[in-house]
């Protein structure tokens, strides 16, 4: 990217180092030419509503493979560009994965770049090498976790609760084992016919047997239709054909003036003349041939007439056969050859089904063996979840107490689908499949009670925005202590929080900053005062265009910004309050207060 306005920061007071080193943005809405350099510990971004704080997080998400929306491109510009520079030394496994992708770390760092074009395709790059958005997401998932306002709804209603519990339980290996066992089981179940309803298989077999038998009983061949068409025509015209044969016999042989009689008289006359003139002998031979032909034609007509039967039953039988052939063609193919081919296929499929039935016992045994292995894997995952659920509830309770919610509690319910309580599922009646999936057989539900004595209910139904914000902070804090992701980003984690609860949130963010790099967008002065470094985001008009700028604030400037966040910065009282708040917060939490993850 081109160089922009770079905001440099001083060194951190401890922490694990600055993992996200630099974020550059060009032409993303009102962000243009920004270059921010972050440090270790707690980084906060403040500013008036609408100044563009959340746009910076949008830019960060784009660099990490988020959905590229052309609507984010600045007006009148053809594309937006973002890049994020990370130190990968604190992220296990990332360096090796980058080498596999053909983009090894450069001096211990990785540069993730994203371009979104208004027209045509954009581009993704890792260390300058073309990549996919999926590759950016894969690498980014090991570097940074973003807890935004959208996560509140997702965490309360989706599968995020199960994923979080599995992370706390360090159950990634168990999840992978369940997924592999589930794939093996599905293969065996499908091979054993488990992928189809047994009744449907029986219906299919009965249908194939009927069709193969019907075509076999038809006892036809590809030429029968042509032969039968000719026979139907003859049978339908038998009376007329018989009359024609009889008339021919009579005209040639039997009737008055028959051809045979007249031809005989001619033979005698010409024969007598040939005895006088031998030149007529050839004519006599021709007359003899004609007489023989007349005799043969007469005999043939008589035989033909004798063979004709005027039989309505024979006509009906031919029509019935014809209709049967046509019905077979309507069902099985356009021609009799197609019908016969269909019959062969039906017989082959029927034979294959019979052969499969012969292997059914072995296949069923293999399916049951794999089902047992899957059940064992699900049970191990279930047990790990149940143990982690009890530990998580207690650990979250301690975190919430520090966040000003001593009476609140989080219950984690792990229930086997189809089972009783926390037990394993049971198969349904009629041989139905047990309700397990590649994620196991459990449903995980977080139950929330904000005050002592109140019954716990589903988190998504009863938690307020402020309660959910603090709970998510507590969960992320616990996760961070046992997770490998080195950078945490919070987008308005202070939603609905004020007073002593706000001070508790600020202190917890400070403690997180001792172990992780933390970025936080906030509207609360107490959180801003707790930061290791403070960025102010401001919106102004330049050259007829609204743009956003970012600057670090220290000393008097920072005091002024905290005073503004308190009450608009009016008067000496708010300034003294800001100075006192900064003094108190910059004392910092004790590193000894950290705890291990549950």
How is the topology of this model organized?
Layout: E1 5-7, E2 20-26, E3 34-37, E4 42-46, H1 53-63, E5 79-87, H2 94-100, E6 109-117, E7 123-126, E8 129-131, H3 133-141, E9 144-147, H4 149-157, H5 160-168, H6 172-191, H7 198-218, H8 224-236, H9 238-254, H10 259-276, H11 281-307, H12 312-332, H13 336-358, H14 360-402, E10 409-416, E11 442-449, E12 457-458, H15 459-462, H16 465-482, E13 487-491, H17 499-515, E14 517-521, H18 525-529, E15 533-542, E16 545-552, H19 555-567, H20 571-585
Parallel strand pairs: 1-3, 4-14, 4-15, 9-13, 13-14
Antiparallel strand pairs: 2-3, 2-5, 5-6, 6-7, 7-8, 10-11, 11-12, 15-16
Helix pairs in contact: 6-14, 7-13, 8-12, 9-11, 10-11, 12-13, 14-16, 16-17, 19-20
Label this structure with key terms.
598 residues, alpha/beta, Rossmann fold, 7-stranded mixed β-sheet, 6-stranded mixed β-sheet, elongated, disordered N terminus, disordered C terminus
Describe this protein's structure.
With 598 residues, the protein is α/β, with parallel strands linked by helices. Among the domains are: 5-143 and 485-593, Rossmann fold, CATH 3.40.50; 223-334. It has 20 helices and 16 strands. The strands form three sheets. Strands 1-3-2-5-6-7-8 form a seven-stranded mixed β-sheet. Strand 2 and strand 3 (34-37) form a beta hairpin. Helix 16 (465-482) packs parallel to helix 17. The two termini are 43 Å apart.
Total beta strands:
16
Number of helices: 20
What is the architecture of the domain at 5-143 and 485-593 at the second tier of CATH? Answer: 3-Layer(aba) Sandwich
% residues in beta strands: 15-25%
User: Helix coverage percent of residues?
Assistant: 40-55%
Task: Determine the N-to-C terminus distance.
Answer: 43 Å
- Quick one: overall form? elongated
- Assigned CATH superfamily of the domain at 5-143 and 485-593: P-loop containing nucleotide triphosphate hydrolases
- For the biggest β-sheet, the strand order reads 1-3-2-5-6-7-8
- Top CATH class of the domain at 5-143 and 485-593: Alpha Beta
Q: How would you classify the helix and strand content by structural class?
A: alpha/beta
Radius of gyration: 46 Å
Largest sheet: 7 strands, mixed
Q: Find the CATH topology of the domain at 5-143 and 485-593.
A: Rossmann fold
- Ranges where pLDDT stays below 50 over 5 or more residues in a row are 1-16, 418-423, 426-431, 590-598
